[in-house]
Amino acid sequence: MATPSKTVLDTDSAGENSLSFESALSELEAIVAAMEAGQMSLQEALDAYKRGSDLLRQCQATLSTAEQQIRILDGDRLRDFDAPQEVPSGNRDIDGKQES
Q1: Which of 72, 68, 62, 51 is nearest to 6 (CA)?
Q2: pTM for this structure?
Q3: pLDDT by residue (tens digit) across 51-73?
């Protein structure tokens, strides 16, 4: 069965932080796929779950750091995608151009 490779489960916590976000996410996706296949022994599943939890924490920390950096660069002007956009005063056409 498709169990995660030995390197996936045997990577220690010290090596965890050396993974790029993309590598950590890819490994996490492989672990999830292997666990969803349901062919692991109980011990393999527990080891995979622990490794997946570690990788998830690393990915979340990386994303949080990136968000903080973006906030600094963007002057803390971030808003939710669903948040209503401020509409400037004045009449605007469909392209946002000021009407005469």
Answers
A1: 51
A2: 0.61
A3: 999 999 999 999 999 999 988 88
- CA 38-44-49 angle, 5° bins: 85
Residue range 20-35, pLDDT digits in tens: 999 999 999 999 999 9
What's the burial of 24, exposed, middle or buried (CB within 10 Å: 0-12/13-18/19+)? Answer: buried
Residue 98, beta-bridge partner list = 92
Give the pair of three-digit tokens for residue 29.
């996706």
Task: List all residues 6 or more positions away from 30 whose beta carbon is below 8 Å from its beta carbon.
Answer: 4, 5, 8
Predicted local confidence at residue 15, as pLDDT:
53
Contact 2, 34 (CB under 8 A): yes
- Specify burial of residue 4 (Cβ count, 10 A radius: 0-12, 13-18, 19+): buried
Distance of alpha carbon 32 from alpha carbon 18, whole angstroms: 21
* Phi-psi sector, 58: left (phi>0), alpha (psi -120 to 50), beta: alpha
